Give the backbone structure.
Amino acid sequence: MPDLHLESPVPLYRQMGDILKKEIESQGLAPGARLPTEKELAERFKVSLITVRGCISELVREGILIRRQGRGTFVASRKPKVTQLIMAIVPDITDYFCARLIAGVQSACAQLGYELITVSSHDHAQTERNLLDRASARGVEGLIIVTGRGSFANGYLVGNRLFVPLVVVDSYHPSVEADFFYTNDVVGAYEATHHLIQAGYRRIGHLMGPRGHFLAELRLHGYRRAMRETGIAVDNKWIAEAGTTAEAGYRALNALLRQDITIDAVFAYNDMVALGALRALAEIGRRVPQDFGLAGYGNHHVAGYLQPPLTTVDCDLEGAGRKVGQRLLARIRDEVRGGELLKEILPVRLIAGGTARGA
């Protein structure tokens, strides 16, 4: 190991920094490698902790090292060549929600000349990991991951230290260093359910989204809160897992009514689930809104074409996508400080259609 020269006019912390940089360049310390502790470095170089901290601070400023709060100091990835490529990993490219969100991201990218690659994970962890490998191989400058799942290859991201700017949509994972965006689904579900209550319905069921998904849990919480605040006790028989599709909504409402035929309204996880519920109601002769109230979520384009128009919750998905894209591009272009991680809850608004009495 080269010695530090006390008689040199170059400060000790810079001499130490030059040695570490050479080790990094020779792959002695590879990108993603964790540095020894400050105490270990002080013992190795026979300098004070103040000198070590000065060296590390200088290398962090140069972008050679990065600090991870509570985890240590790591060698930063090599500055990638400018590809102006961004990858968005979504559950399903053909899904209406994903398509509208990505349209907003695309708009933000186009303004600054970035190309957006959008791929589907189908909410499958192994597929997601493979796509992350592809992102690394393509040299993407930033990543967007849209997922409601509880982990989204969380361990892979942390364990392999993918040092590219990351934005996560529709989920929150405090152990992952990323900017997070998700809509205020608790409030949206609360307002949709409360709207049904105000319309005079009392035995209100919930066609729940995929169990374990972040947004499904938020919407269930909003539904329960509205019922609780009105003094209506929720029977567990009033809640059925419905997934995300019209077919699933059709099956779920039929199952719900077999459990309790006296249910007089439902709040559906999304508008497609509500669409399936409408078909089930038509088949058994329950009139909407006279005999049965219904509210969906997402303001799908079909909502306004139904007869009567569906009561739903609008999330301004394209606007959300633009915010997501703008934040990622700002981070890529070093327009925000590295440690300033964002957790933004996006607003929603109720659209009162004709599927509840009095609308």
Observations:
- The chain has a mean pLDDT of 88.
- Residues 12-75 form a domain with the Arc Repressor Mutant, subunit A fold (CATH 1.10.10.10).
